[in-house]
Structures are given as C-alpha cells and as structure tokens.
Amino acid sequence: MDSQFFVTCPYCGESIELYIEPDMRGSFVQDCEVCCNPWRLRLVGRGDDRYLDVSRADGSE
Q1: How far is 23 from 31, CA to CA, in rounded Å?
Q2: What is the pLDDT of residues 19-42, one digit of tens each?
Q3: What is the pTM of this model?
Q4: Is residue 23 situated within a structural domain?
Q5: Is 48 exposed, middle or buried (0-12, 13-18, 19+ CB in 10 A)?
Q6: 37 and which of 11, 19, 42, 44 could share a cystine (Cβ 3.0–4.6 Å)?
Q7: Number of folded domains that form the chain
Q8: Burial of 35 (0-12, 13-18, 19+ CB in 10 A)
C-alpha cells in the first residue's frame, strides 16, 4: 500500500512529499512546511487506490 504522496502547495507552488498513515481516511488540515499556509487534505479511496486532494484551508474555498 502506497503511503507516500507528492503534492503541490496551492499557495507557494512547492512540491512536497507527504507520508500518510495507511489506516488514515477522510479530511484533515496540515500546514505547508515551506510557506506555513494551511492546506485541506482529503484522502479518498482504499488500499492501493488512494488519492490525496489538496486545497486551500484559509476560508477562501
């Protein structure tokens, strides 16, 4: 099961590698480790078919 995801910050455009626990599901908020702005992460799917959607979590969404 793939637990590493490469995402692009919706604020600064930096590409970042994230490790997400295999049993984690749903939505959560995490700050960009480069520009410190908040992301809303939504993990969809199960097993090897997991997909991570990243969007801004600053109230503009």
Answers
A1: 21
A2: 998 888 899 999 999 999 999 999
A3: 0.82
A4: yes
A5: exposed
A6: 11
A7: 1
A8: exposed
